[in-house]
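Example S7 (structure tokens).
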């Protein structure tokens, strides 16, 4: 076994210092070990789902309630096909037949585990289901914390390398800041615990009430959410050329060194027209997987990339780009060039100070910022599908640069 199986065994060493070993389970294995009534706390056997070759979720064999809840929780906001697959798996776990069908096992040795540490930190028995997601540079385990009966208590995040450790620390700081901030129509998770496990940063946050009563944001809900986040700091309208944001972005491009993508990014930034732009805060990764809404409220999580002093509208563009590329990267980016511009021209955005003559400039800045992030984090090497910036982002950026110059001339009359 190679590839993701290497990641899985390495992750086991982080979560369970006693170590883990991949193997195959007997059909009856799901019925042995500690009972669901005891919450599976003594369990040392886990199921990689759908397999050890392609692990996306790791579930306890001996607690079908926690396993079923874990499948359902991690499938929210995903595609219809993935939700159907999750429903089938949830039913299989709830009926107790999943261990008969899924034969790969992760066997963990005896010793102190992260479950013990989390139970001590929260002063209650904790069972975990683990989401690890697709290969990306910022791939890290997200642990759903459950009672033995399968009720969600919260989520834990653990850094497993330099990048993910930095992100976990950043989110810990962000949640502390947000606890002191006013977001009138947005609920964010409460920080329940911050510390270390196995020498790596660990945070625990409560579980937001996201489920059947919430849905993806409408266009208006999205823009209201974007504007409330941006107002975490006073909005400042300033010329792009002399802004602190432009200076920071230029420095980040310089830090890319001799990478071949750096020069076209720098050239595009230098050629953008002189416009006045409103600057504020942004979530940094607002997507369908990090936000859910009711008619009156938004629930937003995953604040690890919260930043300040960025052009207004970045969050709206990021959300829209991730929606558009669900149909494919190239077709999706082509659509985004139109739909992203329409979002920024919405009366809510213009009412917040974003002039129509700066729309293409803000879109170009967003792509430069996103490309720089991907290159800094080495996302392409990790296999992230949007990370091949020379394939789609640089061509889109060239067109936006020309559009920005045209818009600026039109606005000047």
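Recovered sequence:
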């Amino acid at each position: 076994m190679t590839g993701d199986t290497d990641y899985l065994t390495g992750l086991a060493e982080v979560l369970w210092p006693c170590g883990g070993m991949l193997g195959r389970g007997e059909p009856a294995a799901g019925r042995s070990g500690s009972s669901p009534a005891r919450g599976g706390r003594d369990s040392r056997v886990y199921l990689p789902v759908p397999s050890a070759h392609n692990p996306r979720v790791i579930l306890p064999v001996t607690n079908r309630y926690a396993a079923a809840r874990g499948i359902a929780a991690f499938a929210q906001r995903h595609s219809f096909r993935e939700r159907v697959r999750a429903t089938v798996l949830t039913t299989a776990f709830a009926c107790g037949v999943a261990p008969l069908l899924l034969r790969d096992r992760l066997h963990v040795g005896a010793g102190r585990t992260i479950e013990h540490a989390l139970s001590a930190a929260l002063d209650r028995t904790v069972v975990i289901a683990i989401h690890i997601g697709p290969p990306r540079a910022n791939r890290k385990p997200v642990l759903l914390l459950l009672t033995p009966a399968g009720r969600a208590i919260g989520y834990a995040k653990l850094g497993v390398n330099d990048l993910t450790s930095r992100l976990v620390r950043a989110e810990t700081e962000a949640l502390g800041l947000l606890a002191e901030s006013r977001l009138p129509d947005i609920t964010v998770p409460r920080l329940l615990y911050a510390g270390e496990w196995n020498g790596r940063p660990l945070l625990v946050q409560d579980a937001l009430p996201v489920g059947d009563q919430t849905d993806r944001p409408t266009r208006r809900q999205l823009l209201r959410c974007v504007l409330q986040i941006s107002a975490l700091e006073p909005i400042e309208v300033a010329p792009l050329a002399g802004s602190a944001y432009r200076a920071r972005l230029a420095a980040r491009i310089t830090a890319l060194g001799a990478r071949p993508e750096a020069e076209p990014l720098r050239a595009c930034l230098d050629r953008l027209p002189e416009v006045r732009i409103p600057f504020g805060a942004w979530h940094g990764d607002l997507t369908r997987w990090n936000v859910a809404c009711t008619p009156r409220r938004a629930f937003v999580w995953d604040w690890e990339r919260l930043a300040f002093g960025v052009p207004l509208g970045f969050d709206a563009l990021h959300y829209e780009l991730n929606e558009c590329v669900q149909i494919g990267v190239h077709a999706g980016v082509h659509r985004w060039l139109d739909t992203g511009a329409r979002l920024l021209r919405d009366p809510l955005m213009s009412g917040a100070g974003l002039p129509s003559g700066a729309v293409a400039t803000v879109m170009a800045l967003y792509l430069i910022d996103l490309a720089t992030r991907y290159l800094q984090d080495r996302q392409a090497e990790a296999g992230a599908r949007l990370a091949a910036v020379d394939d789609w982002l640089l061509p889109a950026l060239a067109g936006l640069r020309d559009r920005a110059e045209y818009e600026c001339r039109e606005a000047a009359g």
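Notes on this example. Confidence is low (pLDDT under 50) at residues 27-43.
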